[in-house]
Amino acid sequence: MAFRTTLIGLGLVGSSIGLALKGTGADLEIIGHDKDSDAARRAYKSGCVDRTEWNLINACEGADLIIISTPLAGVKSTLVAIAQDVKAGCVITDTASLKVPVLDWARESLPSTVHFVGGHPIIAKRDFEPMTPAADLFVGGVYCLTPSTSTPPEALQKVSDLAEAVGAKPYYMDAAEHDGLIAAVEQLPLLMALALQTTAGQSPARREMIQLSGADFASVTRLLVGDAQGLAEWCTLNATNLARWLDVILPQLSALRDLVANKDNAALQKSFASALETHGGWTRKGEAGEPTDYSDFSMTRMLFGGAFKPPK
Question: What is the pTM of this model?
Answer without folding.
Answer: 0.88
